[in-house]
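Running log. JK asked me to keep both predictions on one page so they can be read side by side. First protein, sequence followed by its tokens:
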Amino acid sequence: MMGLCVLCPGQGSQHPQMLELLEGNSAACTLLDEVTCVLGEDPRLWLQAPHQLHLNHIAQPLLCAAQMATWAALREWLPTPRLYAGYSIGELAAYGCAGALDSGELVRLARLRAVLMDSANLTPSGLLAVSGLDRKQIEMLCQNGDGEIAIVNGFDRFVVGAEISSLAGLQHAAETMGGRASRLPVSLASHTSRLAAASAAFRDQLAESGLKGPLAPVLAGISGLPVYTRQAAIETLSRQISTTLNWSACLDALPEMGCRLVLELGPANALSRMLRARWPDLPARSVSEFHSLQGVVDWVERWL
């Protein structure tokens, strides 16, 4: 295997033009047609109603379908990846790209995951991105403001989950402490203990699904460790719903595991930007930064 790594981002960046790069590509169109048959709805039509794109039951299957369709359009022309990784729902999409789930099973599980998470969210909640504060300060912030660390993105970059009624107070407290904080366009506190019931239910669904061991390892979002087997995939994919994501550990694992080039499948470039900030010498770009699929292929070929 060459040193290519494929990244699948999470919710927040979906937009009405996110599938334009795939127009006319037969592999991508075939996959999206397959997804339509399973869902009973065409995800391409969801893009015509932008106000719905951040609803969990729309966003999660849409992102999984878009990323697997993007990979279907590119994989014939690119080296076999050494490693896959995904951020939140992107971790499930990564298993699809890594050959552990077919497209229909992927979107079925993505929609089920969203429904289970919404059902477990007994009181309205959300996420707050906080930067400029270290781990001890974030822990103090959460303790005083009834929040939990949902995601660790770096030494001073975190995502905090809490009830909606607590988010404004947490934001004010973070800014008072010298940090920067902003609400994320996500409608529940993913990766916090309030979703423990969803983790348990999703574990059962994964155990009954057609999930297989990936063709190349997928990094576990909760630890940054590589996953090779079906059983480990079931455990990590279910736990990550209600357990803190350590994306910082995933970023560090990429060069350690031999990645020499990183391609993010879009629809934006948040993961690529984080990686470039962490490892400036590791080439990383998102498909969304190119004007054509051929441009993506040419860039990868230049580096590998």
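And the second, directly underneath as requested:
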Amino acid sequence: MTDDTAFERDLRATLEKLGREPAPERLVSRVAEIPSRQPSAQRLHAQSGLSPRAIGSGLGLLVAVLAIAVIALVLRPTGPGPVIVGGSPSLAVVPSESPSTEPSTSPSSSPSVEPSASTTPAPTATPKPTALPVPAGFQPISATFVSETAGWALGSIPCDTGRCPAIVRTTDGGTSWSAIPAPKTTVGQNPADDTGTGISALRFANAKDGWAYGPELWVTHNGGTTWAKSSIAGLPKDSPVRALEAARGMVHAVVYDGAQDFRIASSKVATNTWTLASVRVPVGAGPVPRPQLVLSGTGGWVLENDRTVVAGAQLRNGSWVTWKPVCLDVVGPAVLAASSATNLVAACDVGAFGDAQGDHLFASHDGGATFAEVGPPTPLGAATVIATPGVSTIVIGGTVDAGSELFASFDGGQTWSGVLPPAAATFADLGFTTPTQGIVIQSDQGGTSRMLMSHDAGRTWTPVAF
């Protein structure tokens, strides 16, 4: 086989495999020996005796050879081979994926622009800003977790006007905390305050969408970078929000209508488009109406206490309807919790405004259609908070002779054990994020408060260091 024959063979093979692998080194060497100045067609004809048509083909071949030489030099292996898209044997460049910025739905934020694809390498990620330290004197008021690691706490800090709201967040399950902006308002006394201002509770649905309320309503859709005061269409301006929870992409709020009823408003978590349910929950005749909102799975319940259990509503097939709540006939208040759409528990202060009989536990396994008393009376005089991460595990807090105490049952309410020593304090935001991880806020009458966490289904509770 002559050198010319080998050259032609290599040339054809290279054309067939172009884009899949580099040209052979010997072909590159042959091409490099071609004179930089192209011979004239006349000289080619004289030397080879080729016809003009053949000369044209020869020139085309020479141009192709020169192109191959350039490609061969470019494709000289220095790393991974060329990228083949869709199986085509052509050299293709895949655009680098730049991280897109999802626009915020917050009314106070500017729209962000999604960068277009680029063939240049994506820029290195912008370093995260330095986390702000927790403000001095931070006292927790309310807490919310959306996962085992991601959580937020609303608190108060000293300021020129006395105490101002502050918010801190954790991304490691409460081991470390950093400050984020808080709504520019005051600290509310509690969600039951219909005449005051400010915020006293905090809830997040995910890393972006959150609400600070009680009695005002503030919303963020960018993780707390900015907050905007919100209102609910169809209700008087600044109607006090008394309870709020989020689950399964929806947020629900219990709002006083300024007359005789509580209304339930619902919105998708990423928007501020509230819809009022047709059902109305009566306030009651007592001086201190206290509605409670519970969500679990696809289920939801509102229980209204005004000294005694007054009325209720239930989320059924995505709509709020009238519900006959537990303990309507016990002449006392009740607190409610759910571990699923079907399993609920309620602690009822039986005979509180009549023949006092202590705090009793009731359970439902049909979504609240029926309840039955479970076990002996609880160790509490009156329960004020309750949580249940599963059917057999129940944690309750409330009054005892020495102040208030936290108890837990791990057999569905048959037996109870104290899990937090008695103290002259009140409890708030008792709840579980997972079957084992729970939180509670404990506050004394002097204004000092602390947040405690459990990682063993409520058996032990440890103060959180902010």
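Observation for JK regarding the second prediction: The CA atoms of residues 307 and 333 lie 6 Å apart.
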